[in-house]
Amino acid sequence: MIGGRPKLMIAFDESEYADAAIEDLPRAGMPDDADVLVISVSDFSAGTPEVSEFDILSAASRRTDAVLGAVRSHQAQMLKETRGIVAKIVHDIRVRFPEWRVHGEVLRGRPVDELLRKADRWKPDLITVGSQGRSTIGRFFLGSVSRSVAEEANCSVRVVRRGFEKADGEPTEIILCAKHPAEAEQIVDAFIKRSWPDETRVRLVTIENADPAARVSAFYPDGKSICESAAERLADAGVTVSVQVESGDPKTILIQAADAWRSDAIFVVAGGTIDGPKLDETASGLITDAKCTVEIVR
Questions:
Q1: Which of 64, 177, 212, 295 sits CB 3.0–4.6 Å from 158 for a disulfide?
Q2: How far apart are CA 67 and CA 270, in angstroms?
Q3: Quick check: 297 and 272 in contact, CB under 8 A?
Q4: Helix crossing, 144-152 with 111-122: angle to 10°?
Q5: Is the pLDDT of residue 81 over 80?
Q6: What SS3 class is residue 158?
Q7: Do the beta carbons of residue 281 and residue 254 sit within 8 Å?
Q8: 164-167 contacts at long range (C-beta below 8 A, 24 or more positions apart)
Q9: Contact criterion met (CB below 8 Å) for 29 and 126
């Protein structure tokens, strides 16, 4: 998020996860100035009553207009409700962040497709999505939507959960995960580009694997490990840093660390491959199982 005003897309439904996305923003390292697009999608295929409810199969042709009219009325009501929710969220964000340029938009269609299409056009630096929820308006974000956006988007994606209850004034607690030197550089680069609250605390968790060439301990003979180098950069950015070196399953280690530390978020590199899944097992597993917010870094 450098070079001009950063761009943030916030996608939500009318469930409690819309409020969670807003509550998460002060602990997300957002800058004072940003262009923000608030988006909701009305999925008529999910939110419109089944045709059988209108008894269309047994209806005479003279009732066709009445049936279609009922469908259009239902869709119009869905759009009206969605626009009202978007307007409220836009207002709430403007109150909390008066320097931001915030506007809202309602899309119609399949949520995953519409969000990714909009992101490709608008090119946000970060997309914030809810992790789950069941909305009467299109049943938006049932978990699979946020996972699909996290996997397919070309930018970083922040999957928001309410996580651990925090009192006002408690420091922001972030876990950064790196499994090898390139990931450490990428994750630290992403973190220090943001504007973090005072007294933000970071735990850098480096996870060794079975490949001796990739083990953190292999760097100690050179006098400086990947952990120490990354920690120095984080400290220079003004945050309090601790380092944790572990061996084992990354997802399990990170979830246990987040639970013990009552973390606000875990940052992890998307991983994945060009021809295969675009999220590696760690990123995918954290989206499913972590109690706190998970940010997928690209």
A1: 295
A2: 47
A3: no
A4: 30
A5: no
A6: strand
A7: no
A8: 164/262, 164/263, 164/264, 164/291, 164/292, 166/27, 166/262, 166/264
A9: no
What separation, in Å, do the N-terminal and C-terminal C-alpha atoms of the chain show? 12
Provide the H-helix boundaries in the chain.
16-24, 44-47, 64-96, 111-122, 144-152, 181-192, 226-236, 250-261, 281-289
Query: What is residue 198's three-state secondary structure?
Result: coil
Determine if residue 272 is left, alpha or beta; phi over 0 gives left, psi from -120 to 50 gives alpha, anything else beta.
left
β-pairing, 126-130 vs 156-160, is parallel
Asked if 298 and 270 touch (Cβ cutoff 8 Å), the reply is yes
Q: Are 44 and 138 in contact (CB under 8 A)?
A: yes
Flag the least confident range among 89-98, 115-124, 145-154.
Answer: 145-154
Chain-centre distance of CA 159, in angstroms?
3
pLDDT digits (tens, 9 = 90+) for 140-174: 444 567 888 999 999 999 999 877 777 777 889 99
Give the pairing type, strands 156-160 and 293-297: antiparallel
Rounded CA gap, 87 and 85, in Å? 5
Give the Cα-Cα-Cα angle 194, 199, 201 (nearest 5 degrees). Answer: 75
Q: How many residues does the chain have?
A: 298
The SS3 call for residue 101 is: strand
Distance CA 188, CA 20 (A): 25
Name the strand (E) or helix (H) holding 246: strand 240-247
In this structure, what token pair is assigned to residue 290? 């972590």
The encoded tokens of residue 42 equal 């009305």
If one counts every other C-beta atom within 10 angstroms of the C-beta of residue 179, the result is 22
Count H helices, E strands: the chain?
A: 9, 10
